[in-house]
Amino acid sequence: MSAIKEKDYQGQHIDPHTWKTILSFGRSRWKYFIVIAGGGMVAGIIDLLMSLMSMWAIDGFMYSGNTEKFPLFIIAALGLQVILAGFTLIYCRSAGSLEAHLSSDVRRAAYLRLQTLSFSYYDKSSVGYLISRLTNDISRITEMVSWTCIDLGWGVMAIIASLIGMFIVNWRLALINIAAIPLLALLSVFFQKRILRYQRETRRINSMITSSFNEGITGAKTSKTLVREALNDKEFTGVTTSMKQAVMRAVTIQSIYLPLASLIISLATGAILIKGGHDVLSAFITVGQLNFFINIGNMMFEPIRNFANIFAEFQSCQAAAERVADVLTAESDIEDTAEVVAKYGDMLRPREENWEPIEGAVEFKDVSFWYKEGEPVLQHFDLKVRRGENVALVGETGGGKSTIVNLICRFYEPKEGQILIDGKDYRERSQLWLQSKLGYVLHTPHLFSGSIRENIRYGRLDATDEEVEAAAKLVGADEFIRKLEKGYDTDAGEGGNLMSTGQKQLISFARAIIADPKIFVLDEATSSIDTETERQIQAAVDTLLRDRTSFIIAHRLSTIRNADRILVIDAGRIVEQGSHKELMAKKGRYYELYMNQFHADKIDESVAALNEGV
Ligand SMILES: Nc1ncnc2c1ncn2[C@@H]1O[C@H](COP(=O)(O)OP(=O)(O)OP(=O)(O)O)[C@@H](O)[C@H]1O
Ligand SMILES: [Mg+2]
To answer: Do 123 and 100 fall within a single domain?
Structure first.
């Protein structure tokens, strides 16, 4: 696969388009939003009522001395608090549920998208990167969205309620408090932006530290052989120092912001105390009313400071949101047409009753293909393969062998010309139809997490345990699997370290054979496999090839001696073809390749023999 490039997600500005994609998942969960907003409204109203009640209590009970209704006041206050607690419980629960639903909805959608995307998508993005991003990003965004909903709902209601309350009680004092709002808002936005910048910087450096750790651990052996420890240490110290500086900057800004914000609020309170104090003395307002203004100030300023926080949160999640939205809206280069889907079904609802049985004849008809415009890999390529024919592809690296088999698998489609399966353009049938009857073994066999048994069963999900074991026996994997401590139940992830590449390959052969494919593709990279495993793999391949059309890319030419036809591929063209015998007799390119490898092997063997002799 080509060099993996990760798109740079800047996430500098909040982009409504990105958020629309993500928030659209909330549409089906609108009930939660209503509960959360309703809860916020009730909380805002109760907060206002509590402030008003304190005002009445001070004026009513303290000044008049009439405490007859005091028990009633206590009961009402308690009642309001109980209602508030009840609503808090309900809307916190709703936010929690919203978070859970949203994240599972978004995850499912992203997972489905990734499954339907074509190979070319994965050329542009590394899979590991995608997986880690998707898991982390989705949690982060859905958590943020759900909980900021509460803050927003409550904040807006608190501000509206306090404004109404203030104007009802005394509009002059209300204006003093309101004057402080723009100041506080500007200050908060100004500082939050800077805090955010340094936090982002911290995260960026943090990921550099993680990758340094990663390299330090995984590359420990290489570092030792290259005596790189001192250099590594210097690099690492550099990164940690920048981290310390970034953290310090964020903390410093934070520590300037908090007292400044408090100062503005205190100034407003001070102004209210001066003006209100005069008014009390001149009996324009009561002490209770003055107290109300001091209370209500807090109720109004807190959400304003919080809004700046919410804004910062959205901005800090922007990059994550872009990454997720990108996956959610990614278009596959390879799509079945509407007619094909109507007849053959799609990935989720295949209509197998309409699938023709596949014979396995493959034909390239004047196929041209390129990954990048202007750099053709295949030009007017023709190839006709009978059903059941075993074809081997050999040739120099970069010649186009993998490209040819990727086209057969429809991981990519021809840019010009056609590929016919059983005489019909494969685009006239669904991708799933082809892929369900196609066995593909990659050079770096990928085992999924789960037991070895499950891994083999991925080939055909309804296979019984006996069938799984029979498949393993057929390819000669049974013996070593049984020797593992937990046998077929060994976890392929953890056990992956216990198995050699060759053994993993045998497992992927078992997985391929259990599906009983009509077309089998093996793209093998040069790998140092010991002669015993090589013999086993050879035997497994021979078993696999029986009665199937096959395309084998083998770097060990001894593996393909029995192929019906060997194609020598160079610069996207077939430069020679025939059986092993014919090509050897011809003494051309194949002969050259074969003899080179033969001599190299002889030298290796002699060196090994010498080493053993020592
Ligand atoms: N995903 C890709 N994106 C862009 N270019 C690619 C991609 N895969 C292959 N190529 C280019 O296409 C050409 C053919 O590559 P291909 O992988 O088919 O060769 P190959 O014969 O399989 O080589 P090898 O023996 O090394 O596996 C090469 O020039 C390669 O650089
Ligand atoms: Mg290749």
So the answer is: yes
pLDDT, one tens digit per residue, over 568-610 is: 999 999 999 999 999 999 999 999 999 988 888 778 777 777 7
The verdict on 340 and 324 lying in the same domain is no
Residue among 5, 396, 402 to mutate when testing ligand 1 (max atoms within 8 A of CB): 402
Give me the number of domains the chain comprises. 3
What does the block give as tokens for 124?
């542009």
> In angstroms, what is the span from residue 100 Cα to ligand 1's centroid?
43
Closest residue by Cα to atom 24, ligand 1, is 397
The DSSP-derived string for 499-549 is: S-HHHHHHHHHHHHHHT--SEEEEE-------HHHHHHHHHHHHHHHTTSE
pLDDT tens column, 275-322: 999 998 988 889 999 999 988 888 888 888 888 778 778 877 887 888
Which residue is closest in CA terms to ligand 1's atom 5?
A: 371
Query: Which residues sit with Cβ closer than 5 angstroms to ligand 2, an ion?
Result: 402
Residue 579's Cβ-count burial label (10 Å; 0-12, 13-18, 19+) is middle
Residues 272 and 417 in one domain: no
* Interval between CA 443 and ligand 2 midpoint (Å): 9
- Cβ atoms of 481 and 452 within 8 Å: the answer is yes
Same domain, 69 and 179: no
pTM: 0.65
Ligand 1 atom closest to 400 (CA): 18
Q: What is the C-alpha separation between 76 and 149, in angstroms, rounded?
A: 29
Kindly give the distance from the C-alpha atom of residue 1 to the centroid of ligand 2, in angstroms, as a whole number. Answer: 9
Report if residue 419 sits inside a domain. yes
The DSSP H or E segment spanning 377 is strand 376-385
Does 75 lie in the same domain as 198? Answer: no
Residue-wise pLDDT for 38-74, tens only, equals 888 888 899 999 999 999 888 888 777 777 888 888 9
Same domain, 33 and 145: yes
Residue 223: which domain range? 171-284
Task: Give the span between the Cα atoms of 215 and 288, in whole angstroms.
Answer: 66
Cα of 400 to ligand 2 centre, how many Å?
Answer: 7
Q: Is residue 113 located within the same domain as residue 190?
A: no
Statement to judge: residues 256 and 235 lie in one domain: yes
Instruction: Check which CATH number belongs to the domain holding 78 and give it.
Output: 1.20.1560.10
Atom of ligand 1 nearest to the CA of 371: 4
Pocket of ligand 1 (CB under 6 A): 1-2, 123, 371-372, 377, 397-403
